[in-house]
Structure formats: C-alpha cells, structure tokens
TrEMBL record:
<protein>
    <submittedName>
        <fullName>Oxidoreductase, short chain dehydrogenase/reductase family protein</fullName>
        <ecNumber>1.-.-.-</ecNumber>
    </submittedName>
</protein>
<dbReference type="Pfam" id="PF00106">
    <property type="entry name" value="adh_short"/>
</dbReference>
<dbReference type="InterPro" id="IPR020904">
    <property type="entry name" value="Sc_DH/Rdtase_CS"/>
</dbReference>
<dbReference type="InterPro" id="IPR036291">
    <property type="entry name" value="NAD(P)-bd_dom_sf"/>
</dbReference>
<feature type="domain" description="Ketoreductase">
    <location>
        <begin position="7"/>
        <end position="198"/>
    </location>
</feature>
<keyword id="KW-0560">Oxidoreductase</keyword>
<dbReference type="InterPro" id="IPR002347">
    <property type="entry name" value="SDR_fam"/>
</dbReference>
<comment type="similarity">
    <text>Belongs to the short-chain dehydrogenases/reductases (SDR) family.</text>
</comment>
<dbReference type="GO" id="GO:0016491">
    <property type="term" value="F:oxidoreductase activity"/>
</dbReference>
<dbReference type="InterPro" id="IPR057326">
    <property type="entry name" value="KR_dom"/>
</dbReference>
<dbReference type="InterPro" id="IPR051687">
    <property type="entry name" value="Peroxisomal_Beta-Oxidation"/>
</dbReference>
C-alpha cells in the first residue's frame, strides 16, 4: 500500500512532545518530514535551532529522511518559509500537521489581551497561515492531507484556558470548511484532540494520569489521517492512552414556532428545546 511512502509532510512544533512523536512515526513509515520548531519556551518566548535539529538527527540516524525548519507559524512570512523548506528540499508538500502551540493559562477574570492574542496567534493563525501556504500546492496536485491539533479544552472547556480553548475550537471551524472546499481536489482535513504527557501538560494533570499518556499512542492516528488511504474528512478524534474515538456535534429535532414566541411560550418549551435524549448527528441547515 502507498501509505506514507515518499509523502512530504510538514509537522509544526515537532521539536518535542507530540510533534516529535508524529515526525518519528511519519518518517518511520516512509514519509519525508519537515521538522518545524521555533525552539521557544512553553509560553512562546525565546527561540533556537537545537530542538528541531535534534529530532532531525534522530530520524536520519534511524534511516529516515527529514529536514529542520525554525520559522514561526504565527506569521504569514514564517509559514511561507516552512512550506518553501518542503518544496526546496523535497519538491512537494502533501501533508500539514498543524501541531505548534503555546500556553498562557489563567482564569478569565485575569486574562490579559497580550496572553489572549499570543495564544490565538500561534494556534489559530498558525493553523491558518501554514495551511494557507500549502493549499495551492495541494490543489494543483489534487492531493493533500491536513491535520489540525485541536483539544478537549476547545471541545468541552477547561478552567484557566479560555484563550487556548477558543483557539482550538476555532481550528475545528477551519477544518470543517477546508473539508468542504478541498473535497473535489482530493484534500482531506481532520482534527486530533490528543491526550498525552508533554511539557504542555506537565502541570495540568496528575502524574499518575500522565504516566498512562505516552505521546507515541497518538502518532499512529495522525499517521493514518495523513496517509493516502485516508478518505475521512471533516472529522475530529480524541486520541490518547490507547483510545481513538471520534467526537461530533449532535442536534435534536427542536421546537418550531409558527410566529415569534412570547417569553412565556418559549420558557414553557425550553425543556423540550434543550432535551438531547433523541439527538442525531448534526448537519448544516443552510449548507
């Protein structure tokens, strides 16, 4: 099977944690990997080349093919440079795994504009910029695989992560549209909400939980979504600790009012409106 053989895949934030696992898995299955990492701290400060270089050295030492890139995903120029690294070194770009991220957690009443903007810029704008730079190449070759790193913090919320959760759910909205627009060009777009022990989650979950969440458990699902065999598109998967499960939005039949209801009328029907006991998979009513 073609699988990942000779597919050129960009993995952002691949200098450690989940990104490193993705890069190793992809290269180990025949892909040509652009290991992108700015080399900064967890909060996005600083930069360096050693993280990306180390992962490339590991991959090449194991017989794989990879090159390093140190550009920031948070700017159009940085994203275009990442895609140029793929084209210049491997002649194509077949897949983008938008994994780069930072954390600046804090309760919402303490949230600063700076911390809000920084997280949105790296996660949401980063996902947009890198995919946008790769998109024309994918359309032209009529093949592409996009994987966005979303999060259960975006899907369900998490205390202290308003900025992170908003960015991560924003990526779901992005991939939903990319799946529609990419369909006739052989491009799929999906999301993975990983559960893994990395420096990003070191102080978020108890150690006994983290001990069960090896990043290597997540990489095979990402590898499949990037592969030629994958035809899934517009879906989100929670992956971690051996579990791979699809999550989706559901809707009930709702209540239809012939005329605009009064406050009393809608109040009386609200339990019925919000009842999800007979819900089914949601669809876009105007799509």
């Amino acid at each position: 099977m073609p699988g990942l053989q000779d597919k050129v895949v960009i993995v952002t934030g691949a200098g450690g944690g989940l990104g490193r696992s993705y890069a190793h898995f992809l290269a180990g299955n025949g892909a040509l990997v652009v290991v992108n990492d700015l080399g900064g701290a967890r909060d996005g400060s600083g930069s360096g080349t050693s993280m990306a270089d180390k992962v490339v050295d590991e991959i090449v030492g194991a017989g794989g093919r990879a090159v390093a890139d140190y550009s920031s995903v948070a700017t159009r120029e940085g994203a275009e440079a990442i895609v140029a690294t793929a084209i210049d070194n491997f002649g194509a770009v077949h897949g983008v795994v938008s994994n780069a991220g930072i954390l600046r957690d804090g309760a919402f009443h303490k949230m600063t504009d700076e911390n809000w903007d920084a997280v949105i810029q790296v996660h949401l704008y980063g996902g947009y910029y890198v995919t946008r730079a790769a998109w024309p190449h994918m359309r032209e070759q009529k093949f592409g695989r996009v994987v966005m790193a979303t999060s259960t913090s975006g899907l369900y919320g998490n205390f202290g992560q308003a900025n992170y959760g908003a960015a991560k759910l924003g990526l779901v909205g992005l991939l939903n549209t990319l799946a529609i627009e990419g369909a006739k060009y052989g491009i799929t777009a999906n999301g993975v909400a990983p559960m893994a022990a990395t420096r990003m989650t070191a102080d978020i979950a108890p150690q006994e939980v983290l001990d069960k969440l090896n990043p290597d458990h997540v990489a095979p699902a990402v590898g499949y979504l990037v592969s030629e065999e994958n035809q899934e598109s517009g879906s989100v998967f929670v992956v971690g600790g051996g579990l791979v499960q699809r999550v989706a939005q559901f809707q009930n039949d709702g209540v239809t009012f012939g005329t605009p209801p009064t406050l009393d009328e809608i109040t009386k029907r609200w339990a019925e409106i919000s009842d999800m006991s007979h819900a089914k998979l949601g669809t876009n009513p105007v799509g």
